[in-house]
Design a protein that fits this description.
Blueprint lengths: L1 H18 L4 H8 L4 H9 L5 E6 L2 H17 L4 E6 L2 H7 L7 E4 L5 H11 L1 E7 L5 H9 L4 E6 L11 H6 L5 E4 L2 H9 L5 E3 L4 H10 L5 H7 L4 E7 L1 H13 L4 E6 L5 H8 L2 E2 L13 E3 L6 H4 L5 E4 L11 H4 L5 E3 L7 H8 L3 E3 L3 H10 L6 H9 L3 H9 L2
Parallel strand pairs: 1-2, 1-4, 2-3, 4-5, 5-6, 6-7, 8-9, 8-12, 9-11, 10-11, 12-13, 13-14
Helix pairs in contact: 3-6, 4-5, 4-10, 4-19, 6-7
């Protein structure tokens, strides 16, 4: 099985290099890893007391951010190394000021893992959610470096619970901080008791965001005179429904923040929208549709909405709904949401609705015309506190 894992890593690399011909993210992925060990050595030099945090992408970073911040406040003299696997995380958060260094993670080969850890010499390591890179984990275990899996969530269909070799790799984890009891039980069933149900640190992250929300005067002015529907992280399949609804319901204001910017031109034509980058105090009221063509401001835009539509549910899965919920917004999303506990729970509490077609979208928006904001806000508060539970363990 180890050989198959090694082959899968090299096949992934082959796919990335093949995608260089047509994919911008692949180009960033490769470019960000060029001469990485030389750059890493030059940056770190002889620094000590380095704590290494790793996130796959932006979503995992939001889960790790409250822990990173709290750890740095507790130990200001310790150095923070933050790594990302995906350009979607690195390119947006490469200037995150709490971290001392931010790099891409070299691909998980045995040689890379050995070299990376010999340069960094971390005193402890925290990987977020789904990140389990077995060569890195093995090398950390050899060096007796504590390795924590944080905000992890497990499901019975994962390889860990179907193949012994994968389960064996989890012996390299010092402690699991999981999101729910189901994850704890699954680990227990394959022999792991080093587990704490801490919850999801994203709840702490979104609370902080609402408390420190950045005002955006243009959007504040755009939204104040009409009910405003925020469409966050949308994909083309979401936008087919949304465009039809926008055309048939001009009595609302709409703010659309596509997940990817490459198809904005078509979306703009179909909705007669104004681009945020072109907006000013004079033209902001010329259209009832505003398209966000800037990255990194969506979490602050939700403060100006009445209802949120969150994209991704007609693809592999919905994007972050908690940023909207923390501001008291009800949320609507597509059918593929069952991997997300918060979506399941909020659906039960009538703070969220899943839709599969246009008729259901109409019904969902109509249902949320009157909505008690306390449903979402209370849900966020009740599930906060994971950061403290985790920090109390990893600072020892």
């Amino acid at each position: 099985m180890r050989i198959l894992y090694k082959i899968s890593i090299y096949l992934y690399l082959f796919g990335i290099y093949l995608a260089l011909l047509f994919n911008v993210k692949a180009k960033l992925w490769v470019k960000g890893r060029r001469h990485i060990f030389k750059r890493l050595s030059k940056a770190i030099k002889e620094e000590q007391n380095i704590v290494w945090f790793h996130c796959a992408s932006l979503g995992e970073f939001e889960q790790g951010k409250p822990i990173i911040k709290a750890y740095k406040q507790k130990y200001p003299k310790h150095k923070i190394l933050l790594t990302f696997f995906s350009p979607s995380g690195y390119e947006i958060r490469k200037n995150y000021k709490v971290a001392d260094w931010i790099f891409y993670l070299p691909v998980d080969t045995k040689a890379n893992a050995t070299r990376f850890i010999s340069i960094v010499k971390p005193i402890k390591v925290v990987f977020i959610k789904y990140e389990f890179w077995f060569n890195y984990m093995t090398e950390l275990k050899k060096k007796n470096i504590p390795f924590y899996s944080v905000s992890a969530i497990f499901r019975k269909e994962q390889f860990f619970f179907r193949h012994k070799w994968f389960a064996k790799q989890l012996n390299n984890v010092s402690h699991f901080f999981v999101q729910d009891n189901n994850s704890k039980e699954l680990l227990k069933n394959i022999g792991f008791s080093n587990c704490t149900v801490a919850g999801d640190t994203r709840f702490d992250s979104v609370i902080t965001n609402t408390q420190n929300a950045i005002r955006i005067p243009l959007i504040e002015g755009f939204s104040k005179n009409k009910t405003t529907i925020i469409c966050g992280s949308t994909w083309p399949k979401d936008e087919v429904l949304l465009v039809k609804y926008i055309k048939e319901n001009p009595n609302y204001n709409y703010i659309i923040a596509p997940h990817e910017l490459k198809h904005i031109s078509a979306l703009q034509r179909n909705t007669n929208a104004l681009l945020f980058s072109k907006a000013n105090n004079t033209n902001i009221s010329n259209s009832n549709v505003l398209i966000i063509d800037s990255i990194g401001i969506l979490s602050n835009i939700y403060q100006y909405g009445n209802t949120a539509y969150i994209g991704g549910g007609f693809g592999v899965g919905i994007h972050n709904i908690l940023e909207a919920v923390a501001f008291g917004l009800p949320v609507i999303f597509g059918p593929n949401y069952l991997k997300f506990n918060e979506a399941i729970e909020l659906t039960k509490q009538k703070g969220a609705i899943s839709i599969s077609n246009y008729t259901e979208l109409i019904s969902a928006i109509d249902f949320f015309r009157t909505f008690d904001k306390s449903i979402g806000i209370n849900y966020i508060q009740e599930n906060s506190g994971a950061t403290t539970k985790i920090l109390n363990s990893i600072i020892t």
